C-alpha cells in the first residue's frame, strides 16, 4: 500500500507459476502469531490502531478504532460510507511498529477480500529502521494488494530507491485468484539475505533475487533491516478509485483468519 503512488495502468500479465511454496524451513521458529481467536478489539499487545484521515493517494477514508474488531475467529476491518471530518468513509488501519518487527523470515496470512468497486485492501511491510532514508529509500514490501474493481486479481510488489512505482519500474506481479468471490486465500512472503519471494495459495507470485554484487547496495536491496506489519482497507484513491466507487455496496469487510511470522532460530 504505497504512501504515495503512481499507478501503471498497463498491469503485468499474471505470472505462469513455476514454483510452489516451500513451507516453513526446519530452522525457523514462530516469532509472531495472531489467530484472532478472542472476540473483541484487536490485541493491543500486538497491534496499534491508527486514528485519523488518510492523506495519501487521494484516498477517502478516515481511520478509526471502531472499524476493526475480532469476531468468529477473524479480524474484521469494515469500511463504511459515513462522513468523518472531510472524509466520506471510515475504515481501519493496524500496524505492529511498536510491538513487533523482523528482518528475514516467513510471513503467512489467510485473507478474504472485499469485492466492491472502490475498495483497496493491503497487507504490507514498512521499515522500522529507516537508516537509508525516507519512503522508497528504505524500501517497502507489499505482500498483497487488491482493488475491488478487478476482484479476481491480486498483486505483490517491492519498492526500493531504484525500483519503485514512482519511476514506473517497481518489482511487481499479479495473479488471478481461483475459487468463489470472497473466498479465503493464503498469502506467503519468504525473505532472506539473498532475496524475496511471495506466494498466493501455494504458488509463486513475485520474486526478487538481486545479483550478489547488488546485495550491499541499498538503492537496489534495502531489505536488510527490520520491517513491521501494516494491514488496512482503503477506499478510493489513485488506484482503488480508478474506476470510481460503488457507494451503494458499502459497508465492505476485509477478513483475516490469521497472521503468522516465522524467523530463523537464533539457537540453530
UniProtKB/TrEMBL annotation:
PROSITE patterns: GH16_2. Residues 19-267 form the GH16 domain. One of its GO terms (molecular function) is hydrolase activity, hydrolyzing O-glycosyl compounds. Pfam families: Glyco_hydro_16. Residues 1-18 form the signal peptide. Keywords: Hydrolase, Signal. Belongs to the glycosyl hydrolase 16 family. This is Glycoside hydrolase family 16 protein. It comes from Candidatus Avichristensenella intestinipullorum.
Amino acid at each position: 500500500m504505497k504512501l504515495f503512488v503512481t499507478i501503471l495502468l498497463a498491469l503485468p500479465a499474471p505470472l505462469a507459476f513455476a514454483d510452489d511454496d516451500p513451507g516453513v524451513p526446519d530452522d525457523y521458529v514462530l516469532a509472531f502469531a495472531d489467530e484472532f481467536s478472542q472476540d473483541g478489539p484487536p490485541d493491543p499487545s500486538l497491534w496499534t490502531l491508527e486514528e485519523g484521515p488518510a492523506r495519501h493517494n487521494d484516498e477517502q477514508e478516515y481511520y478509526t478504532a471502531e472499524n476493526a474488531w475480532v469476531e468468529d475467529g477473524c479480524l474484521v476491518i469494515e469500511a463504511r460510507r459515513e462522513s468523518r471530518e472531510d472524509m466520506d468513509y471510515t475504515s481501519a488501519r493496524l500496524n505492529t511498529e511498536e510491538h513487533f518487527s523482523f528482518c528475514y523470515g516467513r510471513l503467512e496470512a489467510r485473507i478474504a477480500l472485499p469485492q466492491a468497486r472502490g475498495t483497496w485492501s493491503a497487507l504490507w511491510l514498512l521499515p522500522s529502521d529507516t537508516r537509508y532514508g525516507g519512503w522508497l529509500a528504505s524500501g517497502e514490501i507489499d505482500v498483497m494488494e487488491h482493488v475491488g474493481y478487478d476482484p479476481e486479481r491480486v498483486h505483490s510488489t517491492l519498492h526500493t530507491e531504484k525500483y519503485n512505482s514512482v519511476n514506473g519500474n517497481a518489482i511487481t506481479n499479479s495473479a488471478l485468484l481461483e475459487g468463489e468471490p470472497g473466498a479465503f486465500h493464503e498469502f506467503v512472503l519468504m525473505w532472506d539475505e539473498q532475496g524475496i519471494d511471495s506466494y498466493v495459495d501455494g504458488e509463486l507470485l513475485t520474486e526478487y533475487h538481486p545479483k550478489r554484487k547488488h546485495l550491499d547496495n541499498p538503492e537496489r536491496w534495502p531489505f536488510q533491516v527490520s520491517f513491521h506489519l501494516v494491514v488496512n482497507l482503503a477506499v478510493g484513491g489513485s488506484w482503488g478509485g480508478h474506476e470510481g466507487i460503488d457507494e451503494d455496496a458499502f459497508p465492505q469487510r476485509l477478513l483475516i483468519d490469521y497472521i503468522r511470522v516465522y524467523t530463523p532460530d537464533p539457537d540453530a
